[in-house]
Amino acid sequence: MSLRLRAGFGVLALAALPAHGQALDDRHLKVIDRTPAESAKVAVVLAPPVDFTQPEPFEAHPGGAATVRVRANADAFSQFSANMPFEDEMRFKLGNALFRKSWVAAPSSTAASDGLGPLYNARACQDCHVKDGRGHTPEGPKDGRVSMFLRLSVPGGTSPEAIAGWLATQDEPTYGGQLQDLAVPGHPPEGQMNIRYGETPVTLADGEVVSLRVPEYDVSGLGYGPMAADVMISPRVAPQMIGLGLIEAIAAADILAHADPDDANGDGISGRAQIVPSAEFGVPMLGRFGLKAGAPTIRAQSAGAFAGDMGLSTRLHPGPWGDCTAAETACRSAPDGQESGLRDGLEVDDQSLDLVVFYARNLAVPARRAPDAPQVLRGKALFYGLNCQGCHVPKYVTNRLADQPEQSFQLIWPYSDFLLHDMGPGLADNRPEGRATGQEWKTPPLWGIGLTAQVSGHSAFLHDGRARSLIEAVLWHGGEAEAARDAVVALSKPDRAALIAFLESL
Amino acid sequence: MSRFLVAWAARIAMPALAISATSAPALAVEKADVLAHYADLAAAGFDDSLITARALQGAVQALIAAPSETSLGAARDAWRAARVSYQQTEVFRFGNPVVDDWEGRVNSWPLDEGLIDYVAQGTAENEENGYAGLNVIATPKFTLSGHAVDASTITPELISTTLHEADGIEANVASGYHAIEFLLWGQDLNGTGPGAGNRPFTDFIAGDGCTGGNCARRADYLQAATDLLVSDMAYMVDQWTEGGAGRAAVLADFDAGLMAMFTGMGSLSYGELAGERMKLGLMLNDPEEEQDCFSDNTHNSHYYDGIGIRNVYLGRFTRADGRVMTGPALADLVAEQDAQVDARLRAELDGSVAALKAIKTRAEAGLAYDQMLEAGNAQGAALITTAVNALVAQTTAIERAVAALGLSQIDLEGSQSLDSPAAVFQ
């Protein structure tokens, strides 16, 4: 028996309201203001290319001076920023060790490693972020679902006053914000996510047929009674980890400069900023991380994952029970891994969270492969010709930073605007998050995408890994990206291959 | 090579590091000679590692042919001797891509040893690693990541291409020194208490008297893993002899080659040894955070890492057979530019070797490295902290030496820093 969950209450017909009176700043960074001369230089270097017969200067190194050479194996995403001073290497290595570490249930003799759960999706960060790359969908009924889970919510609740356009949702009353499919001994897991795939063929202009995998989700084995009738579910595959510190170092103003909520320029692409309350700073901030940009900083994202995915407390999420709700009483009252006077009275102390954040901030972007190959350059010209860069904004110059030499004032090439876009009903999870509607997703960065198979052993893309290749991922684009998608369908075979070759070179 | 230059540009751009004002006279020691000697040291170090791996291979064959307390002891001694040579080569890893890309095949840790062989009940449960309890030795046929695997014959190829990092999980270490270590010692179930792994020699008796089950397959695995270690090491020797890729890379660009030398010293000192291998274990009080955890040989592995770092700077290497190699050294280049910087770095290198020696001495006197990691073991914590601090201090001295050689002045070709003189805006 399984409970079929129908996703969502549909798209809210809310206008995309701009946020009023909110100066979204970079208070998470120690910014040294740009001089006018620097701003002028930046404007020049960020100008779009005019010559597609050769690569742009510096294009080969998408992470700026932090770019690393491409390792020929699955470690390609696991390197530290190439421009890292020696003294930071220790922090990176310690952070990596914590990222790898498997947590255990409390109480345990290894007091420094206990506090897992009681409900959890994974015991270690890297269990979802395998090799610091993308997670994957289950390959069969017995395969672990560990690098993928379901987010849960129901409509209603309150909205943060200061954030315009917030779509009020709240945790599912019994199961919380996500479905934990594992639990420590003595506690039932919340349930199991099940996926069924159907196939839909798409015929391209040249006659080639691409079959798209259409997923359907449900939950079986519910451990704590029925879910709310109006529950909304959103399947999420763990995103890749590279370049996060560089994304965090982009000036909020530079991201907001690409926002066009009312499509004033009439190109069919809006682009709206996610704005979320910051537990760290107590003010609304620009959302940058997560599939709907629900986290403003790497620290917020990491602390959220410690709590939701592993049931571990941090300064930002001090509840040792993680995502257990008040309805899950045994879970709330189970032994925890917090000892007064030890590790700041938390399961993950401040030092450990700092180290994990540092690690995540410095996972480096590998160099491009053959950016000067004629086919790649042809693909790049097509990419611009089809206006893919309308959302996948190629390049930025990061803030100059007083205390982060690795990320400071770098020319970077993430290919994302980090804004929310309506991607159409096909990709919709119909589960709003913050200001993002049930049809909106944050543009994901494309850097490193061509190394996915090498690092992760699969080529599954999009928020729930449904696309089995880059062309499938492109064909899933709808909504604001429908015109670009249709143009790809119309491409000749060699041009389509060139476009894919360009993406593979990123 | 250009990315090393980029990396170093940032390292030495730190304000605390004043660039030596000394103008460079004609050098008595040529960079080319220092680099050629460095490549010779690498070739010799890996050659020693190959020789000692072959000795281990012979000892393993003897163990399998006639398992006994003696033959198992001899194989363990051969493994320990092999580590002495190999650990002195680790300084070549960082900064030399040809070594760094290969290193995981021979020296990965920690491992989910239940992938390979039987383990104590309750120690192989890791629900994120479905293969943590696979036990290849007991399982000739299994499914790995959805593919059927026929492991009825255990070969080096099976270990290197199918089992190692199975399912993309780093803990699935199937090859190298630590896989062999596990097969020779077994699990160390003593936690932070005294004692190493205690596998009985009867685990290798084919037929009657076999303990642990599947003794013939266990012997096959041990043999195949040792054969693989020998062939992996032979490959690396080739990279450093005439015409090898490692030698060619460091000689292709002298300043980049010197950077590779310093990078190896600095990255091993600070991030790898002081950080990942020492400070972390102390932070977590976790006996699993010990590199040679089955054999309780960690004190030697740390010590010979330290010796290796000093070898590269001084251009000296005492080979396994006692021969001493000397030649044009990085130290000579630094001393010509700034005798004080050279003296300071020599002193720091001696200091870290002494601190690592203190750990080794105490371990040999009965307080094993995993016992030092126990929460509340003040003596152990002090020994490890002293060594960590010495390695950190040494890294600062290395950075001064880099600056003394004026390597911050090199052309930053390929740099993406917008501060770089090569930046696009003119």
Could you characterize what this model shows?
Chain A is an alpha+beta fold and 506 residues long. Chain A is built from 13 helices and 16 strands. In chain A, the strands form seven sheets. Chain A has a three-stranded antiparallel beta sheet, covered by helices on one side. In chain A, a hairpin with a 5-residue loop joins β7 and β8. Chain A is globular. A two-stranded antiparallel sheet of chain B has the order 1-2. Chain B is globular and about 70 Å long. The chains are: A alpha+beta (506), B mainly alpha (426). At the A-B interface, α1 and α2 of A face α1, α4, α9 and α14 of B.
With helices defined by DSSP (H or I, 4 residues minimum), what is the helix count of chain B? 14
Rg of chain B, alpha carbons: 23 Å
| Mean pLDDT, all residues of chain A | 92
**Range of helix content of chain B:** 55-70%
Number of strands of chain B: 4
Q: Unreliable runs of chain B, pLDDT <50, ≥5 residues?
A: 1-25, 409-426
- Helix coverage percent of chain A: 10-25%
List unreliable stretches of 5+ residues of chain A.
1-21
Radius of gyration of chain A: 22 Å
Judged by helices, strands and strand pairing, the structural class of chain B is mainly alpha
SSE arrangement of chain A, N to C: EEHHEHEEEEEEHHEEHHHHEEEEEHHHH
Largest sheet features of chain A: 3 strands, antiparallel
Give the strand tally of chain A.
16
List keywords for this structure.
heterodimer; A: 506 residues; alpha+beta; three-stranded antiparallel beta sheet; 13 helices; disordered N terminus; B: 426 residues; mainly alpha; two-stranded antiparallel sheet; two-stranded antiparallel ribbon; 14 helices
Secondary-structure map with pairings?
The complex is a heterodimer of chains A (506) and B (426).
Chain A: E1 2-4, E2 31-32, H1 36-45, H2 86-100, E3 119-120, H3 125-128, E4 148-155, E5 169-170, E6 182-183, E7 192-203, E8 209-220, E9 232-237, H4 244-248, H5 252-256, E10 275-277, E11 284-286, H6 298-310, H7 329-332, H8 350-361, H9 374-385, E12 396-397, E13 400-401, E14 411-412, E15 420-422, E16 440-442, H10 452-456, H11 470-476, H12 482-489, H13 493-504
Antiparallel strand pairs in A: 1-8, 2-13, 3-6, 4-5, 4-9, 7-8, 10-11, 12-14, 15-16
Helix pairs in contact in A: 2-8, 6-8, 9-13
Chain B: H1 2-11, H2 31-65, H3 69-87, H4 97-107, E1 141-144, E2 147-150, H5 156-163, H6 177-185, H7 215-240, H8 245-252, H9 254-284, H10 298-314, E3 317-318, E4 324-325, H11 330-337, H12 339-364, H13 369-372, H14 378-404
Antiparallel strand pairs in B: 1-2, 3-4
Helix pairs in contact in B: 1-9, 2-3, 2-7, 2-8, 2-9, 3-6, 3-10, 4-7, 5-7, 6-7, 8-9, 9-10, 9-14, 10-12, 11-12, 12-14
